[in-house]
From TrEMBL:
Annotated GO biological process: inositol metabolic process; myo-inositol transport
Positions of transmembrane segments: 45-65, 77-104, 110-130
Gene behind this protein: SC5A3
GO cellular component, one term: plasma membrane
Signal peptide extent: none
GO molecular-function term, one example from the UniProt record: D-glucose:sodium symporter activity
A Pfam family it matches: SSF
Name the record gives this protein: SC5A3
Similarity remark: Belongs to the sodium:solute symporter (SSF) (TC 2.A.21) family.
Length: 166
C-alpha cells in the first residue's frame, strides 16, 4: 500500500504545482515540457526512455511476478509459463480492444475489489461479534512485549520470533 500512499501525496503535488505549469506551456507530459524548456530532442527521448525503463523494472516486473505467483500457487503452473501467459493475455487484450478495453477492465476490477472488500469486512465483523467483539478479541490476541521477553506462555507468536527481539 506504500505505492498508493506515496502516489496520493505526489498526485497532490502534481495537481497543485506542476499542472498549472504544464497548462501554461501547452504540454501534456514531462518529456514534452523538458524539451520545450531546455530545447533539443535528446533530453525528451532520454527522459521518456528512462521513465519507461524505470516503470518496467519497478512496477511492471513486480505486477507480473505477483500475478505469476498467484497462478503458480492456485493452478500449480510453472512460474515462467505463468509470466508468459500473463504477458500474452495482457497484450492480446490491449491490442484487440485498445485503451477502451483496458479502461473497462480496470473499472470492472475496481468494482469487484470494492464489493469483495465490503463483503469480507461484513463477514469478518459477523465472525468476531461486531466492532466491540473485534476490540475485545484484538486486545486478547495482541502479544505483550514484556511477556515475550520473559518467556511466559503466549500462543500469539511462534518460538522462532524470540531471537528477533534481542
Amino acid at each position: 500500500a506504500a505505492w498508493e500512499f506515496n502516489a496520493l501525496l505526489l498526485l497532490q503535488l502534481l495537481g497543485w504545482v506542476f499542472i498549472p505549469v504544464y497548462i501554461h506551456c501547452h504540454v501534456y507530459t514531462m518529456p514534452e515540457y523538458l524539451s520545450k524548456r531546455f530545447g533539443g530532442k535528446r533530453l525528451k527521448v532520454y527522459f521518456a526512455a528512462l521513465t519507461l525503463v524505470l516503470y518496467i523494472f519497478t512496477k511492471l516486473s513486480v505486477d507480473l511476478y505477483s500475478g505469476a505467483l498467484f497462478i503458480q500457487e492456485s493452478l500449480g503452473w510453472n512460474l515462467y509459463v505463468s509470466i508468459i501467459v500473463l504477458i500474452v493475455m495482457t497484450a492480446a487484450l490491449t491490442v484487440t480492444g485498445g485503451l477502451v478495453a483496458v479502461i473497462y477492465t480496470d473499472t470492472v476490477q475496481a468494482i469487484l475489489m470494492i464489493v469483495g472488500a465490503l463483503c469480507l469486512t461484513g463477514i469478518g465483523f459477523a465472525k468476531v461479534g461486531g466492532l466491540e467483539g473485534l476490540k475485545e478479541k484484538y486486545m486478547q490476541a495482541s502479544p505483550n512485549i514484556t511477556a515475550i521477553l520473559l518467556s511466559s506462555p503466549n500462543l500469539t507468536y511462534s518460538e522462532s520470533c524470540k531471537h528477533h527481539l534481542h
